[in-house]
């Protein structure tokens, strides 16, 4: 029971949605807007510069939007071809 309470509390503090798909991009280069599907639903990510998208480890990526929300892509190799095309332009 204590573990469940701690996990719930941490999940609320560490709000880092995982991007599973990039469905649309307003343009190939920043500033641009991505329509994405995350593990928490659909949303729009506003990217101001190429520095907002960074590699993490061998296959991961971190995307920071203009509102300060960070989005995680744990394994870019699991993205579909369209999503990967949008992401590779900025990595």
Question: How are the elements arranged and paired?
Answer:
Blueprint: H1 2-13, E1 19-25, E2 32-38, E3 41-47, E4 53-56, E5 60-64, E6 70-73, H2 81-88
Antiparallel strand pairs: 1-2, 2-3, 4-5, 5-6
- Number of E-state strands: 6
Residue share in helix: 10-25%
Gyration radius over CA? 14 Å
The ordered H/E elements are HEEEEEEH
Q: Strand pairing plus helix content: what structural class?
A: alpha+beta
* Shape estimate: elongated
Task: Detail the poorly predicted runs.
Answer: none
Distance between the termini: 42 Å
Mean pLDDT, to the nearest integer, reads 92
Strand line-up in the sheet with most strands: 1-2-3
β-sheet strand percentage: 35-45%
Number of helices: 2
Strand count, sense and closure of the main sheet?
3 strands, antiparallel
Characteristic key phrases:
alpha+beta; elongated; 91 residues; three-stranded antiparallel sheet
Tell me about this structure.
With 91 residues, the protein is an alpha+beta fold. It has helices at 2-13, 81-88; strands at residues 19-25, 32-38, 41-47, 53-56, 60-64, 70-73. The strands form two sheets. Strands 1-2-3 form a three-stranded antiparallel sheet. Strands 4-5-6 form a three-stranded antiparallel sheet, with no helix packed on it.
Brief sketch in words of this structure:
The protein contains two helices and six strands, in the order H-E-E-E-E-E-E-H. By secondary structure, it is α+β, with helices and mostly antiparallel strands.
């Amino acid at each position: 029971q204590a573990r469940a309470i701690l996990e719930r509390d941490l999940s609320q503090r560490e709000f880092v949605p995982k991007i599973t798909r990039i469905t649309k991009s307003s343009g190939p280069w920043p500033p641009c807007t991505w329509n994405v599907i995350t593990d928490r639903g659909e949303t729009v990510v506003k990217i101001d510069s190429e520095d907002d998208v960074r590699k993490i480890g061998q296959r991961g990526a971190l995307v920071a939007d203009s509102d300060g929300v960070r989005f995680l892509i744990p394994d870019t190799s699991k993205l579909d071809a369209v999503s990967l095309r949008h992401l590779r332009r900025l990595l």
